[in-house]
User: Fold this.
Amino acid sequence: MFAVSHLVGFGVRVPVLTGYGSDVTSGATVTALLGSYTNLSNLVDDNTANAVSHNDTTIPAKLKVALTATKQVEQIKLTSSSGNPQRMPTTLKLYGSATGSFAGEEATLLNQSGITWAGSQETKTYQFTNATTYQYYAIECTVSQSGSKFEPAELEMMEGVYD
Assistant:
């Protein structure tokens, strides 16, 4: 799946992606940018039995994840809550920010649409290219049902591993 090494002219070695590291959300703080939520810490608690509770029907939903240090995230995993796949995104965007303000300075890292969820406790994995380290990331999504809520069980974020 991944290349072992890559040489480019005159023996210059270019790093090659060989896999993904462990989840970097340990100790992260989650806050709402759009919508009202409770139990936001459940999003990054490494326990898919605990879901985020969306208190209103603000869509798109947008949550900010403040990591404990800057990370070059290149993969995310999003897990649906138990019994509520209809409360998972049909569109998903991920942004990175150096400041955390998400007021126009952010970079779009992922823009996925047409997502379908078959059942509860389902995990979707998304990989993308990101050459920059950020301490702040935001996840924005819409859900398929009118008036529905965004209530995920878990978000994992991983850095790329290079040889």
Observations:
- Residues 22 and 158 are 6 Å apart (CA to CA).
- The chain has a mean pLDDT of 89.
